[in-house]
Amino acid sequence: MSDLFQDYSEAAGRTGAYDEMFAPGQKARQSYGQVAGALRELSLADVSARADSMARTFLDRGVTFDFAGEERPFPLDIVPRVIPASEWDVLERGVAQRVRALEAFLNDVYDKMTVVSDGVIPRQLITTSAHFHRAVHGFEPAGGVRVHISGIDVVRDAAGTFRVLEDNVRVPSGVSYVLENRRAMAKGLPEAFGQQLIRPVEEYPRRLLSALRKTAPSGVDDPTVVVLTPGVFNSAYFEHTLLAGLMGVELVEGRDLICRGNRVYMRTTAGEQRVDVIYKRIDDDFLDPLQFRSDSMLGCPGLVNAARAGGVTIANAVGNGVADDKLVYSYVPDLIRYYLGEEPVIANVDTFRLEEKEAREHVLDRLDELVVKPVDGSGGKGLVIGPDASHDELEALRKRIIADPRGWIAQPVLQLSTVPTLSGDKFGPRHVDLRPFAVNDGDDVWVLPGGLTRVALKEGSLIVNSSQGGGSKDTWVLAGSPQVPVERLPRPSVTVRERVSVWPVESNWRDRQSEQQQQQISDAQEVPANA
Amino acid sequence: MLSRIAESLFWIGRYVERADGTARILDVHLERLNHLPTDERRSVARELLGVMGARPQSEDFGLEELLHALAYDKHSATSIAGSLGAARENARRARETVSSGLWESLNTTYYGLNQHRKDVVGTYRFCHWVLERTAMVSGLADTTVSHDDSWLFLALGRSLERADMTARMLSTRDVLSAGMSWVNMLRCAGAYESFLRTRRAAFGDQHAAEFLLLDRLFPRSIVYALRDADDCLAKLDPSAQRVGFINDARRIVGQARTFLEFHRTDDLMSELPEHMERVQKAVAQASDAISRKYFNQADELAWVGEVS
Question: Under a CB-based contact definition with an 8 Å cutoff, are residues A413 and A387 in contact?
Fold first, then answer.
């Protein structure tokens, strides 16, 4: 191993976390064999030059996120995160299972609420969730799906066990970096791809489009799908353009849409054109000023009514946020048992519900040891890590918890697993999480092999959000056997016209020439024989 | 296609062409400005700015201010940097529609804007770099975007702006006090060699002006650019085949073109500044008509009365 990894094991050992690449004792795990081999051949200068080149490519290609009004390239580290087939199998089953349970839960929540009458979850918990929308109560979404796209965040604890950290079934973002990271890595570290089979990710846009089309309102033969973005100032704007571009559909803003007679249309140069499926990348609250925030300019008035009347499919469905509520999260293992009759494949992180008096008192005594999170937060906002917080911060937090116990959950501080990450002139252990993405077309939940590995670039930090200085890694899922059958989706049938050759092509002409010459040669050869 | 995206594409075409035209004009005029005495230099700088459609921001307007206003000012739609920034911003908003080649070349150009010396000598290099970049952007637009509506809007913006820029180029000769040689004028448009080959060096001023105004085969001549614009409009709106035009933009562009083509060259030359002004006005009107017809946007608060 080149000196790039000098002292690595020692540093990794100090964190007390599970290291994805090295087993204790400086030995690369089997799944990392090819990556370790490729890096061993490189000098520090090589690695830095490649990392620089990858960053420059991202800037030129505009693979950026918006940070306080400034476009920044999303940092991509050169060491991938590798997941062996056997581990992926567990994750894949676990994620799909969770999506099926959440889909059933949302259907129930906006309908009969049997989950409440059967005593699995308290009614008040649901009705007090900030994202529970009465506006959509009692209607079946067009196409029958609520969770079309989900991102289930998982982490690996110190013992090496995967656990679900949170569910994102509103507007999960980050899949564009999965696609771009793979492109960049294929050029940045081609040696590491080598002999091993890494499962491809580029199928995602086709799967997504196919699921969106499949869930269109009934009676539409050739549905028109659009992606709805809040606009160029949104931090995930790059992702919106990429997904629309790769699906070959329009990227619309609210002002491009018109609702009339419970149908949705977009303004085009050829007049108004009907829209059947909207992949929305706007929070519910901004979607429709008639239903939600009346001051919002981002959505389109009438969208919710159109969806309610079955005139348009909105993905993900309005009101899904109730499943993202972190207090609901603590019930998901029960929901899996209740709706599916199965045991959860992936466990939750242990979670204290601060509404329960005993748990609250226990947590208030140990605030300095725990992570406390707001139940409706995302992007790491409002999260307090006990061991890192000052006395004043903890006191302020204590008051807020007592004032609003429904608003918070607490979890033990998890030592997220680490992966070697380039920092200055060597590799250091940095904590990572993983967001696998799943696409649900109503019949089948497909999990994109891999997902987004986010990495906390600051030494020792556990916060991986890009808005707080996080980066990412390409995530490689190794295929179980070299002969993995390539999954094929039925593509829309396209009539291919028979190619008619108008001009004789050159090679053809040469063939004829040589054919003739050969003829002459064999003729000539025959002459002496006859003589 | 979406009206908003069509509008972005139209403006990508206009802004890229504007950066190209401004770089050409600045490049040629800088050479002459440098040779002038200080006082005259100031007045010519002001007038040149006026021809480009802007007004000096301060009393103290000299060469340095001119460079800023025409080359480096990122906040002005008249300057090269401003135009390229605006083109890139439009492409960012239409990113799922333009090809990645087109987007990346505009994005890379945008990031390259800061890497040039801002003095007179540096500006020459800057102008040439801009000509290379805009040629590349145009080439990628032509070869990597399907020639469907999206490309037609881009090409429409480009040809209208080109007619406008050549008109401004021709205006500089008569508006600026110290008249400029026709050789330089032809160089501005990149037309010198083409002109020599066409007219075999037996030429006077009149022929040069005629070439830039009326030549049917030289792509930067006004008549050529207007015909290009008309072609794009015709393809965008194939309904008017037999009789008449209901498309205002086509009428305006067609009138401007035929007005030039059917005038005597002598008459055009004797009132060149007026005619060039007319071309610029026609471009502005056509641009407005195109906006009205194709880029129809919701008003800021378009409520459709349908309350549940």
Answer: yes
Alpha helices per DSSP H over A431-505: none
Looking at the complex, report in whole angstroms how far the Cα of residue B170 sits from the nearest Cα belonging to chain A: 35
For residue A380, give every residue at least 6 positions away whose Cβ sits within 8 Å of its Cβ, in sequence order, or none.
A463, A464, A465, A467, A468
Q: From CA B135, how far away is CA A322, in angstroms rounded?
A: 53
- List, in order, residues 6 or more apart from B7 with CB less than 8 Å away: B153, B291, B294, B295, B297
- Would you say B228 and B159 are in contact if contact means Cβ atoms under 8 Å apart? yes
> Hey, how many other C-beta atoms are within 10 angstroms of the C-beta on B115?
8
* Alpha-carbon gap, residue A172 to A316, rounded angstroms: 10
Tokens 């080959």 label which residue? B197
Identify all chain B residues contacting A237, using CB atoms and an 8 Å cutoff: 92
- Distance (Å, whole) CA B218 – CA A392: 75
Report pTM. 0.83
- Measured between CB atoms, which of A237, A253, A269 is closest to B1? A269
Place of tokens 């390239």: A73
Q: Which residues, in sequence order, are bridge partners of residue A420?
A: A429
On the CB side of A397, CA atoms within 13 Å amount to 27
CB within 8 Å: B307 and A290: yes
Residue B184: how many other CB atoms lie within 10 Å: 15
Q: Following DSSP, what letter does each residue of A278-338 receive, concatenated?
A: EEE-S-GGGT-TTTS-TT--SS-TTHHHHHHTTSSEEESPTTTHHHH-HHHHTTHHHHHHH
Average pLDDT over residues A434-446: 96
Half-sphere exposure of A84 (CA within 13 A, CB side): 10
Nearest CA in chain B to A295: B301
Nearest to B304 among A242, A256, A260 (CB): A260
Produce one character per residue of B291-302: b if its CB has 16 or more CB atoms within 10 Å, e if not: bebbbeebeeee
Of B106, B148, B161, the C-alpha closest to A268 is B148
Name the residue type at position B134: T
SS3 content of chain A, % helix, strand, coil (to 5): 40, 20, 40
For residues A433 and A155, the answer to whether their CB atoms sit within 8 Å is yes
Pick the closest to residue A177 from A151, A207, A157 (CA basis).
A151
Provide the pLDDT confidence category of residue A26 given band limits of 50, 70 and 90: confident
C-beta neighbour count of A356 within 10 angstroms: 12
Give the whole-angstrom CA distance, residue B192 versus residue A155: 67
For B107, which of A62, A252, A267 is closest by C-beta distance?
A62
User: What tokens appear for B29 in the block?
Assistant: 């005029």
pLDDT in tens, A73-109: 888 999 999 999 999 999 999 999 999 999 999 999 9
Query: What are A510's two structure tokens?
Result: 């040469």
Give pairs for A42-47: CB < 8 Å, separation 24+.
Answer: A42/A2, A42/A4, A43/A2, A44/A2, A44/A3, A44/A4, A44/A425, A44/A426, A47/A4, A47/A78, A47/A422
Write out the H or E segment, with its range, that includes residue B260. helix B248-261
Q: What angle do CA B26, B28, B30 make, to 5 degrees?
A: 65
**E strand or H helix at A438, and its extent?**
strand A437-440
The ipTM (two decimal places) reads: 0.74
How far apart, in Å, are the Cα atoms of A148 and each of A110, A247, B292? 17, 15, 38
B165 CB-near residues (< 8 Å, 6+ apart): B17, B18, B20, B21, B22, B24, B25
The whole-angstrom separation of Cα A307 and Cα A313 is: 6
pLDDT in tens, B219-234: 999 999 999 999 999 9
Residue of B nearest to A304 (CA): B308
